[in-house]
User: Fold this.
Amino acid sequence: MKHTLVNSTFKFFSVLLLILCGCASSPEKSNVEIAKKYLQKSGVIFGSYKDSDVTSVYDALTIIDHLKLRPETNHETAFSIFFKSSDLSVINKYIQSHTKAWSFDPEILNTIQSMDRQLNIKHDSEIDAANIGLMLWLLGTEKPELQTTISKQTNLNFQEVKNGVIFINPNMISNRSETKLIEDIQMLSTLAHEATHSACEKSDKLPIKFDKSSKSELANFDKCFSVHVECKNSNSKILGCDSGPWGAYTVNYLVFSEIAQRCTMCSLPILYLKSFEAILKVNSLPKKIEDDIHEIFNEIVPGITAKERGEIMFKIGYTNEKIQHYLKSNLP
Assistant:
């Protein structure tokens, strides 16, 4: 339910950006009032926030409008299968359709940590973002006091399972370390990931009460809300991966890889590498693809030649094709 994909590799990807390619400029800072009204079309903004928090999310939601894109094709991709459209603007629509409220209030972190304790969830770093609407519903009547304040601020009934309340940690915004264009795409990917946690077409089939003590029961929700599970080959007991394809981390992959395919002004290598980092969070990813991705990461070092860069880009393209084949062979 929380997204911590980026912080551990910020410096790594910044180096890659310098090694592999140049970067492009992004739109000027949005007008604050326009940004607020835009976010409020899908949901209320509650709690304390800075103008830069709101404009950063607005810039991310509207970044597709400012990209130079190759024309759409009739070729079916994993992106078009999941989003039911090849138009990149569908990412924004997906996020807004699964979001009922926004928050940038650092105090929400205390609420999230309290919910984590109730759900026996551990995380390995500071939370970048979270969809707390799902967690409030999972707790149900067990801890109604956790719902009260947010319910009053948002006017939402958290017995409704599709209430997406997306929290963005302001530290994620203030600690940015890459180009603004890449950061906006990263934020768009994060928002799409979190929106997936309030996406469920079979909500009427779900149980009324959730047993907070059962991680196995929590894992059973992954087919609906993409609730995370423990990563394979890990003893940390941290719920930081998806059990199978088409979960929230696959959504990260889809956003990065499709923009990389279509954008003519973007830093393609860094977008593909971010997409690979996301897909590695899918426990069912074939080991051969995992090995190919790690091999690519290991080959990217300072001082590589133009020929070596070309060879790496070829491997990136070939590996991406294998990921696409894997996803299309395991349809949701």
Summary: DSSP finds 16 helices and seven strands in the chain.
